[in-house]
Structures are given as C-alpha cells and as structure tokens.
Write a structure and sequence with these properties.
OB fold (Dihydrolipoamide Acetyltransferase, E2P); single chain; 2 domains; 17% helix; 10-stranded mixed β-sheet; 47% strand; alpha+beta; globular
Length: 207
C-alpha cells in the first residue's frame, strides 16, 4: 500500500513539473537569397551550402538527396529557403548560423524580395532606458539575444511593455544596420506581430 501511495505522488509531481514547463525557444525562418553550393572553409567548418541576402550569410543543412540535387542545379541562383535556424560555435568562425532546411524552392521575381522573415519563440526582455529614451526590447532564445524594433507600431510597443519577462511569439523581418558602405552593423528584427505564449498552469491552480 505504501509503495502504491509513493508511486501516485511521484506521478503527480512529474505531471505538475511537465505542466509548468515553459515553451521551447525556437527560430523559424523563410528566406530569399543567393544560394551557393560546394562551399569550402578553413578547418571544414561549413555545411558546404550557403544562402546570402543583404550582406548576411547563413549555412544550409540539407537533409536529403533531393535537396542536395536542387542546390547543385541552383548554384549562384536566387532561391527560397524555409527551415529552423540555429547557432553553433566554431573554431575559425566564432558563430555559425545554420538553417536546418525543410523546403527549398525557386523564387518568384515578381513577389519574392531578398531578405528573411523570422518567427521567434523566446523570452521578451527590456533593457533599462537611458536619458529618457524608451526601453530597448530583445527576445532571448537560448544563449542568443535578438534585438527587436517596435517603433513602427505604437500599439505593439504598448503591448510589449506588458509582456516583459514572459514567453512570447514574435514575427518580423530581419534587417542589418549599416555602419558604412563597406561595413555592416548588427542585425535587428523589425516586429510585425507579438503575442504571449500560454504556459499550462500547475494542476490544482487557476491561471
């Protein structure tokens, strides 16, 4: 009987912990850019395939023979890429950004614009304002901080102020700040939508 009671308590504890687990942080991407296949790098730190847009270069992880054949046929051509984005640390290159490709396709020149659309699931954070300026907002995904720009929509800014410290889903376009004609600055995400991700409440408690 005692063993049965202990087993039930353990099950309830595990269930409660699972229910209170925050959503997983992820970055999904839909990008239009110039594909290169057969790329080599010092130390072999490359997947061998990249996409370039707005002076940003990401590697592509191709997971099947059809994708590799497509990349071979479309070397140095503009394509559309959909997948999940991740960052790894390299030896020669400090940070390597890799898209685990879900779909590769030809682009439509009449409607597809060079760039990347992101869907980011992470934690919204705000830096302390200085000199009377508004707080600087970011979304934290793992060990990476994505700066976001909310200035184009006052309602979105107001909404963000109420979501600081909470798990959110943000969508927007990736843009790179230009320092000079020859040097690019950091990337920012110009937000289009922002919403809170619901976390399942602990059993026995109301949300």
């Amino acid at each position: 009987m005692w063993k049965l009671i202990c087993g039930i308590c353990l099950t309830l504890c595990v269930t409660t912990m699972a229910d209170d687990t925050p959503p997983k942080s992820t970055v999904s991407v839909h990008s239009c850019g110039r594909l290169r296949h057969g790329v080599v790098a010092i130390g072999g730190e490359t997947t061998g395939t990249t996409i370039t847009f707005n002076r940003i270069i990401w590697e592509l992880q191709l997971n099947d023979a059809d994708a590799r054949e497509f990349a071979k046929r479309h070397h140095k051509k503009t394509v559309m890429v959909t997948g999940s984005l991740r960052k790894i640390s390299g030896i020669e290159a400090k940070d390597r950004w890799i898209i685990d490709v879900k779909m590769l396709s030809e682009h439509d020149a009449t409607k597809d614009k060079e760039g990347a659309q992101l869907s980011i699931q992470g934690t919204l954070q705000a830096e302390d304002p200085r000199h009377g300026d508004s707080s600087s907002m970011t979304v934290v995904v793992g060990d990476h901080v994505w700066p976001i720009d909310l200035t184009s929509d006052s309602k979105l800014q107001f909404q963000a102020d109420s979501l600081v410290g909470q798990p959110v889903l943000l969508t927007g376009s990736l843009e790179q700040v230009t320092k000079t004609e020859s040097a690019a600055g950091p990337v920012i995400v110009r937000a289009k939508t922002l919403k809170r991700i619901a976390v399942a409440p602990v059993q026995g408690q109301s949300d």
